[in-house]
Design goal:
Elements lengths: L5 H11 L10 E3 L12 E3 L18 H11 L4 E5 L2 E2 L4 E2 L4 E4 H21 L8 E5 L4 H11 L4 E5 L5 H10 L4 E4 L3 H8 L8 E4 L13 H10 L4 E4 H11 L11 E6 L9 E5 H15 L6 E4 L6 H12 L3 E4 L7 H8 L3 E4 L1 H14 L5 H18 L13 H4 L1 H7 L7 E4 L6 H11 L2 E7 L7 E3 L12 E2 L4 E5 L15 E7 L6 E2 L3 H7 L6 E9 L5 E6 L4 E2 L5 E2 L1 H11 L3 E7 L8 E6 L1 H12 L8 H8 L2 H9 L1
Pfam families: AMP-binding
Protein name: WGS project CBMI000000000 data, contig CS3069_c000167
GO molecular function, one term: ATP binding
Amino acid sequence: MALQTQKDYDILYKKLTTNPPPGRPYGVPVAGTEKPNRTAAYRHWAVGDGPLVTALEPGINSTHDILNRSARKWPNSKCLGTRHWNQATQQWEDKYDWITYADFDIRRKNFGAGIVEIHKAINYAPEKYGVGLWSQNRAEWQIADFGIASQSLYTVSLYETLGPDTTEYIINHAEVTCVVCSLPHIPVLLKMSPRLPGLKLIVSLDPLEQGELASHTKASVLNEIASHHGIQIFSMAQVEEIGAKSGRAPQPPTRDDLCTINYTSGTTGNPKGVVITHGNAVSAIAGGRTNGNVSPKDTHMSYLPLAHIYGRLIDQIAVAEGAAIGFFRGDILGLVDDMKILKPTGFISVPRLFNRFNSAIRTATIEAEGVRGALSRRVIETKKANMRLPPGQASNTHFLYDRIWTPKVKAAVGMDKVHSMVSGSAQLDPDVQQFLRAAFANHFAQGFGMTETYAVGSIQARGDFTTGNIGGPMCCVELCLESVPEFDYTVDDKPNPRGELLLRGPVVFREYYKNDEETRKTLDADGWFHSGDICEIDKMGRFKIIDRKKNVLKLAQGEYISPERIENVYLGSSNLVNAAYVHGDGTQSSLVAIFGIDVENFAPFASKILQETITPNQVADLRIAANNPKVKAKFIKL
């Protein structure tokens, strides 16, 4: 049945936020969709052969519409929060300053109108065009992004970590005329401007005039330099003022209009521009909200890079649900301190950070000596045993331990109020997931998504305490497997079908920008996106990643190896490394690997083996220790 009325959406949403009846699979095959060498299409159990979810409610066709809806429903609620640096005390404030949904709505509309006006002033006025966005997570990033969308324009994300060559490539490839960025990026853009012939406008997210003499402002100095390159520089405040005075009304985008071109940071060659529409975005947001348990009472910490679609989706779900979004200070080392001030209720992250939490909490609890260690081990083992109980009985909470033990653990890392956690972007170590489930006593799911699917695909359900899988299909997408006989994976394998994971639905991207060849390789004639991941499907309709089709090589003895998978195993199972590179050669029978150490964890590890004290700051000693045969041997055995 097609979704037509608000009541239809409300009924489906309620069903989607509940688990299937006991014993029923999370993902169900749609009858009649099987093909040779391909499984049936699997869907969310509550969707079945009905329509996939494409919107929050009738009339929501873009991210612009989503903010309109939220500003109407929660105009006075806190929306975007910033922890400011106190120049006088040279410290971060111990509070967040907020703007409301109504403030956000006004500012983004003014900014969007201003962007159009400054383009018109240089006689650049095509119907649709992209605007570069280059900054760490901050309130102004969201104001710019939603503002650009309000005029049916689209953003082109630039990563904080990109080198100059890649940044230059993206700006030229996407034909960007204007880049909106934080102040430190302006000199970088001016330096490379001779190689950016199309760049004419730069908008600073930071103030450029703060009470200095007119001839001494950042704006006057930077514009003097920029003028020699044919570039004009504006502050965000100037653009908002121009937009407010213009009287220009929003130009709402349609589902088919571009939302963003998101460049994937590939390991070889130039990055590919993933063309994403507003239809993709609102479908993913609608699907994601059914798993997040987010409400206007919630507070979200924004720190996953907004240039990545994963971080962007999470913030957009928060906006759709009227939640408050606080931004980290920009330094990942200060994240826990930011969280202690913000006190978020949900925490979305990646395995690397969960590994760090796991290591720190283990050291302070189950690996501690005396009564603390004994009690902690009892707590964790009791909860792990409870999670192994049959479905419906399994639980990671405890009536006593969650009063006397759990709150202290959560408070130590700013998780006091966190009721839900999600891990994505790479595989999560099962031991880490179960330990943190026990330690935090909250919902902790692993999910799967890609840039090409707007970061959605599958996710573990509430109450499912299994590990090593990425859950069942989400309600806005369907999944299937296709045989890969050259690697001995087929959909006829027993006990579970195995093959390459394919995804299809309203979240799947349109194309790779100016790259028809790669588009044809990845999107087939039936609309299926070929992910490159090898999965199996269990009897409960859950998917498990077991290999990677791409980046597979054959060693001299004929053995197929996935270097990327091995890298992820080390990164996911050891807190001693924060970078891994595995290399193989078809003429050789073994692999070689290079690891980058995590100094905070490696220092005590090496100290114990070498029976000498090495601190994280002793760089020279750490280098020596990393090459010590005893240390290497111990590391390999972990």
